[in-house]
Design a protein that fits this description.
The protein has about 260 residues and is of the alpha/beta class. It has one domain: Nucleoside phosphorylase domain (Rossmann fold, 3-Layer(aba) Sandwich). Helix content is about 35%, strand content about 25%. The protein is built from seven helices and eleven strands. The chain has a five-stranded mixed barrel.
Length: about 260
């Protein structure tokens, strides 16, 4: 069976569009409409989202599923979207709505399982491309192995990390919908191919952004190691690394839109 199932879907007109949905929300009139930022950090960690809102003055923007918070010290040109869960489908929906409202760039950040034990805890991983092993991206672009981030935003990410002497690695990630179906055979294959990480959103983020004409990149910290015979969870050791990742992502987008 082809995927998506309906032939020639990518050239067909969508019935429900982000613009129509946003117009419906605006027409309700029960939430104050605030101008969205130019760039948004996509945040999947509740604790990291709490850190953002507690550490930086800002304003919440209503009308979205989840919380969009814009930063005062960035002249409200940069914000963070969080508290909406994890995974590609909801992330794609929110990106569509935010792009329709004027957001131009996204930096997706969060945990990632690591397939390379030479990468130390606390070192950042910049995603150079993502394996499309989730379902959402295939509704936005013809099926192929990889989705790619925006060259300009990846370059700005690498520049800022280098300027800060921040240890980081650049490489492919494996995006999947099913974390409890990451098989040993897949881990072995992707590790041998040089894939550094596994997570749940990057390939969809890149595909939606490319389809809609926005910029997108992704950056991770290691939360666990996937070996050929064992799994080493280290989520409990990542709190400080995640806060540093959040601060760095905010700074990257501020530089990018300046």
């Amino acid at each position: 069976m082809p995927f998506p199932n309906h032939p020639d879907k990518h050239d067909a007109e969508a019935l429900v569009t982000p613009q129509k949905h946003n117009e419906y929300k605006d027409s309700r009139g029960d939430v104050e409409v605030t101008e969205p930022p130019e760039a948004v950090v996509l945040c999947y960690s509740r604790s990291l989202m709490g850190y953002f809102t507690e550490s930086y003055d800002g304003q919440e923007v209503g009308l979205y599923y989840g919380d969009l918070y814009v930063f005062d010290d960035a002249d409200r040109r940069v914000g963070v979207m969080g508290n909406f869960g994890i995974g590609a489908p909801t992330t794609a929906m929110l990106m569509d709505e935010l792009i329709a409202d004027g957001v131009e760039a996204f930096l997706s950040i969060g945990f990632a399982g690591c397939l390379d034990d030479a990468i130390d805890m606390g070192e950042f991983i910049v995603c150079e491309k993502a394996i499309r092993d989730e379902g959402t991206s295939h509704h936005y672009a013809e099926s192929e192995t990889f989705a790619h981030p925006s060259d300009s935003l990846v370059a700005e990410t690498e520049r800022l990390l280098a300027d800060r002497d921040e240890p980081f690695h650049v490489g492919p990630s494996w995006t999947t919908d099913a974390i409890y179906r990451e098989t040993k055979e897949e881990v072995r294959r992707y590790a041998e191919e040089g894939v550094l990480t596994v997570e749940m959103e990057a390939s969809a983020v890149f595909s939606v952004a490319a389809h809609r004409g926005a910029d997108a990149a992704a950056m991770f910290v290691v939360s666990d190691y996937l070996g050929l015979t064992d799994w080493e969870p280290k989520f409990h050791l990542t709190a400080e690394d995640m806060r540093r990742l959040g601060d760095t992502a905010k700074e990257i987008l501020e530089s990018y839109v300046s």
